[in-house]
Structures are given as C-alpha cells and as structure tokens.
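User: Show me sequence and structure for the first protein, then do the same for the second.

Assistant: Starting with the first protein.
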Amino acid sequence: MSARLFRFLVSGGSAAAVEYAAFVALHWLLGAAWLFASQSLSFFCGFVVSFLLNRGWVFQSSGAFSGELLKYGVVAAVNLVAGNLAIGLLVGPLQVNHYVAKLVVMVVIAAWNYLIFSKLVFRQRIDKNT
C-alpha cells in the first residue's frame, strides 16, 4: 500500500468519524423527520475535515487554495445529492435503519473519491530532487 493511500484512508477515517458522530447527534436531536438536514449538515462537517486533511496531508497540494476548494466543493455537492438520494431510498422504500443507511452511503462515496481527488482536484507537488 502506498503512503498516500494510507494517508487517504486515515484522513478519510477521521473525516468519516466526524461526519458520522455529527449525524448521530443531529439525528438524535432533530429526529427522523429531519433526516435530510441531519445528513446534509453532518456531510458538511466531514467535508471541512476531509478537504483540509486531503489538501495538506494526503496530496500535499501546491495548487491554489480557492481553486481546489471550488473543485472539491463541486465533487462534494455531487456526493451530497447522491448521498441524499441514496439515504432516502435506503431508509424509505428499503426500510434500512437510519444509522446503517448513513454508513452504507459514506462507504460508497468514499470508494469513488480517491481517484477523483488525486486526478481532478489536487495538484501534486513536484519533487525537485528527482
């Protein structure tokens, strides 16, 4: 396993922990009627942690912060829409538990993010020694 993939898994796990903890707290406070609000707000919490760790530690980007944030935000917006649709399907017609549905959605989204982030979002530093 490459060092970058390992860092991606650690940072992703950290962001996922923040996102899931926020979801559990929001869902408990707001109730099931506010499922999409809990999903969306918790997703934003994970987004902040994920962007900062991916940019600074995983990909060690040297690109413009604002440009990368915009690209990351577009990917996140697509993920949020897909995640909300998926969680609605899982909890609604498929009657999956809210907490299990959230975990499933998070795993699926994480699976496609590594390639997108490494190829489309973060500019890699060039090692001047090679």
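Switching to the second protein now.
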Amino acid sequence: MEKALVLLLVALVAVAYAAPGPRGIVVNLDEGEICLNSMQCKSGCCQHDTILGITRCTHKAMENSECSPKTIYGIYYRCPCERGLTCEGDRSIIGAITNTNYGICLDSGRSKQ
C-alpha cells in the first residue's frame, strides 16, 4: 500500500513539473480571458463595458486613445496607458469613485520638449 502511495506521489510531482508555465485560471491570463482583477492579466488591464458586463483582460491604452488613471478597484471601463504614456484628463474625486474620470493617453516625454 505504501509503495502505491509513493508511486502516485511521484507521478503527481512529475505531472506538475511537466506542465507549461504558471498559467491558469488565477494569474497570467491572456487577452480576452475572463478576469476579476487587473492583477490577473498579463497586460495589467481587466476591463468591462457596462456595470453588469463581463470583465475580460485586454491591452492597455495606446497613445491618443481614451484611458483611465489607475484605480483602487482593479477593474476599468477604459484601460490605463501603456508604459511611457500618461493619462491626461479630469482627476475629480467623484470621477475616481465612480471610475468615470477618463482622459487621453499622451507621451509625457514629448510634452517636455
């Protein structure tokens, strides 16, 4: 009986090591996969269109596209900007609470020149 348990344990460990990368239902999700928070997505953005809409991982906002600044909720109506861009727009307290303080992604390095 003990030998069977040891063999089963060894087989389970071998399968666990053979599995590709740390990907699954919790973290490191690809674009289009359902998410609960932006920390789960490879892109860093979990977005939905309506309050009752399904949230899915999507790419971050590109230059000159609509964006939201970082939020404490981790779910966006508009994704934050890609690296190197800043979300320029309304930064009101009410907008931060309701997640409606949208802006436009602008290149911060270009505006300083």
